[in-house]
Amino acid sequence: LGQQLIYQEQVASTQIVAHDLAREGASHGTVVVAREQTKGRGRMRRYWESKDGLGLWFSSILRPSGVEPKRASQLTLVAAVAIADYFAKNNIDIKIKWPNDLFINGKKLAGILTEMQAEQDAVQYIILGIGINMNHQNQDLFESDRNKSTSLHLESGQMFNLNQVLKDLLVELEAKFDLFIDEGFSKIKQQWESYAYKLGEWVTVRTQEEWDAKVFGIDEDGALMVMDENDKIHHLYSAEILW
Ligand code: BTN
């Protein structure tokens, strides 16, 4: 990843730039990174704050051969494990909150947004967007969700060189994708579970109604497995969890 690395000062969203490039035929591994995003986007059409130079905001174009569209969501989990591994190597303890939030000391540090373009049951390309709050020196720098968001600096006291972190992360991401393509999801699944947030703990699941369940792990598809009060196991593909 990052054989083609495109730096931008300010963009609406690196996702949009990456989609445009992919449509024009940009190759697998092209990465777009920006110092600032004015319309950073998160999952479920949420806004993702991406202030100038405070974090890593980047999108990678992936053209995974032989990955069916329904397996594409697993790539989000693959990326989450790669990021958690990177931080673990730097003695920073990260938890992954299903499906794709990275948590540190109970607060949100990073998020992943995977967008897929598929035609006739074949993946054309995937845009893997990653946002990591790095050098915010003050909680007030977060405008929304101030109490639930944090940066690596706030948690570790260190300042980070964004270019270096990006370089190292891309190596980690590439290695993890290779593992996924070569050996499938089962190894990733094990690794994912070793980082799982609230594994074995009770949470509230919101489907049509709200019910309590114990987090059990993920299945071979990457769906969250929970156990209800009657010991019945449920596989959740898109439920909202009130963690
Ligand atoms: C989420 O937690 O909901 C996902 C957040 C993803 C943010 C990244 S930052 C780089 C890329 N460009 C965007 O506009 N979003 C993703």
Polypeptide structure, described:
The chain is α+β, with helices and mostly antiparallel strands. It folds into 2 domains: 5-194, BirA Bifunctional Protein, domain 2, CATH 3.30.930; 202-242, Roll (SH3 type barrels). It contains 5 helices and 12 strands. The protein has helices at residues 14-23, 72-89, 152-156, 162-183, 186-194; strands at 5-11, 31-37, 55-62, 95-97, 101-104, 107-119, 122-133, 202-206, 210-218, 224-227, 233-236, 240-242. It is globular, with a radius of gyration of 18 Å. The model has no long low-confidence stretch (mean pLDDT 94). Residues 13-15, 37, 40-43, 46, 48, 50, 57-59, 101, 111-113, 129-131 line the site of biotin. It is an enzyme of class 6 (ligase). This is Bifunctional ligase/repressor BirA. Acts both as a biotin--[acetyl-CoA-carboxylase] ligase and a repressor.
At a glance:
By secondary structure, this protein is α+β, with helices and mostly antiparallel strands. 26% of the residues lie in helices and 33% in strands.
Helical percentage: 25-40%
Query: Uncertain segments of ≥5 residues (pLDDT<50)?
Result: none
Order of SSEs, N→C? Answer: EHEEHEEEEHHHEEEEE
What CATH calls the topology of the largest domain is BirA Bifunctional Protein, domain 2
* Largest sheet descriptor: 7 strands, mixed
Give the terminus-to-terminus CA distance. 33 Å
Strand order of the largest sheet: 1-2-3-7-6-5-4
The multimeric state of the shown protein is: single chain
* Class by alpha and beta content: alpha+beta
- The number of distinct structural domains comes to 2
Compute the number of helices. 5
Bound small-molecule species:
biotin
What integer value in Å does the Rg equal?
Answer: 18 Å
Q: What would the average pLDDT be, to the nearest integer?
A: 94
The percentage of residues in β strands lies in: 25-35%
CATH H-level homologous superfamily name of the largest domain: Bira Bifunctional Protein, Domain 2
Which CATH-level-2 architecture of the largest domain?
2-Layer Sandwich
